[in-house]
Amino acid sequence: MKMRLSPLRKQSGFSLVEMIVSAAIFSVAMAAMMGASVALQTSYAATDDYFVGEGDQLRVMDYFNTDLRRALAVGLNADSVTYNGTVYSNSVPSGATKYLTVVIPNYKNDATAPGTTNFPTVTSDKISYGSGPVKVSYYLLGNSLFRQEVDPDLATTDKRTQPRSIADNVSDFNISNSFITNPLTTETFVSISATFAPKYSRRGWAAALTSNTASRTGTTVGNKIQLRNLSP
Q1: What's the number of domains the chain is made of?
Q2: Per residue, what are the HEC states of 175-217?
Q3: What is the DSSP letter of 106?
Q4: Would you say residue 1 has pLDDT above 80?
Q5: Is the dihedral of CA 71, 166, 99, 136 positive or negative?
Q6: Does the pTM exceed 0.70?
């Protein structure tokens, strides 16, 4: 019996036209995938910047509100303030602008570990805490807002007395005061605000803030605070 050899099957492959079409489809798919990846990364970065900016705003207003509600004396748009005959001045670097100086009670002695409470003493109808009040300074340097708290119980070299940035990408902050006269007293209020980089535009915030277009030029937060502890 003779064995028949099956004929070789005809081998076939992609033609040149098919390869070109396949390459084109693959390129379009890869371009779409890369575009989606870039859009996703941009959205993630924008969302992250949004929450960073919102956190900066909340932190700054919390500092302003807390310090001004406790204030014994306030220097508006000034690098010094006088309280009980003593001048408290800012020690700010060259180029710093938009000063705010606040004197607050020294409720706690941080020189001890752990810290102890300074109980109030009354002298000549005036209440005081500890060895002396605490000076709080704010100033704008470049695009950063700095806060410095100088506690008389701490050494000048203590890192807790050094200025530190509480927010970045701040273009401006403004302070003004107003008086409201009631039948028995005149109340003093301070209006304070800070302008931050536009949300979702922090990388181009400087250009956006100076833009003359109808686009958003900044995010400003502020508050009006009654000064309840000022000396008469």
Answers
A1: 1
A2: EEEEEEECCCCEEEEEEEEEEECCCCCHHHHHHHHCCCCCCCC
A3: -
A4: no
A5: positive
A6: yes
